Amino acid sequence: MNLRKEQIPHLSQIILSQVKKLELAQFKVPEEKILHTIQSVIEKNYQAEAKLNEEVEQVMAQYSTQIEQGGLNASELFLKIKKELAKKKGFVL
Questions:
Q1: Beta carbons of 93 and 87 less than 8 angstroms apart
Q2: Disulfide-capable partner of 66 in 35, 46, 71, 73 (CB 3.0 to 4.6 Å)?
Q3: Is the pLDDT at 77 greater than 80, yes or no?
């Protein structure tokens, strides 16, 4: 994920603004509560992806020798492993 944690509040505000602007929903609770919920969902997803990245790093450690010798591209391997683990866990990237 290219999103940084400090960007989550701003992204949440943009999402809420667009929902209001496009009239995609009618709010029955204060907007502040909706904003908090949006932010919470994004933060949970951010944390889940961070955990997934840690798992990818653990798997990649098994290939460290091959990466160092130039037999494997670290970036490509990271993405491949991440996609596979995400698929197994039902995590949408």
A1: no
A2: 71
A3: yes
